[in-house]
Design brief:
Length: 156
């Protein structure tokens, strides 16, 4: 990272970004250009950060993942435009996380539930027990990204 003064080191701030952002963008290998897609997400962060996504069971994203499951991701929040009288003094306040991971399509029933539950918690679904319609569940792909490396950055 070029601007070390913007590096986020503490877990509390990183977790705040994960909690407050709405979208995670994942970038994948494709030819002739990379492919990037915004996704809703949930996460679990114990010893390792794990991101979960849901998807249709087929399409370009899943084709790319089956071909090469090494991805880059980006999450950002806290956007605020900073205006000035001088054009070159304009800027943006933000907090972001950028990293790399290995993404897989989950087949295990219990792991799919875990991933979907993480998504529902992230978007503040309020229920003691989450029950999924079996027909919809069968036709929903759940993706699990095991994060290998990430950094946080902010301009405040």
């Amino acid at each position: 990272m070029r601007r070390h003064d913007r590096l986020i080191k503490d877990r509390e701030t990183l977790q705040s970004i994960l909690d407050n952002a709405d979208v995670c963008r994942i970038a994948m290998h494709d030819t002739p250009f990379p492919y990037i897609v915004p996704l809703n997400y949930g996460y679990v962060w114990n010893d390792q950060l794990v991101l979960y996504f849901h998807s249709a069971p087929e399409g370009r994203k899943l084709t790319r993942i089956r071909h090469d499951n090494h991805v880059c991701f980006e999450i950002d929040t806290g956007h605020e435009l900073v205006q000035s009288e001088h054009a070159c003094d304009w800027g943006m306040r933000y907090k972001s996380i950028i990293g790399y991971g290995i993404i897989e399509i989950i087949d295990d029933h219990d792991e799919k539930i875990k991933g979907l539950n993480a998504l529902m918690r992230h978007y503040k679904f309020k229920a003691e027990q989450i029950i999924y319609d079996e027909h919809v569940f069968k036709h929903t792909a759940v993706l699990k990204m095991s994060v290998v490396e990430f950094t946080g950055k902010q301009k405040i």
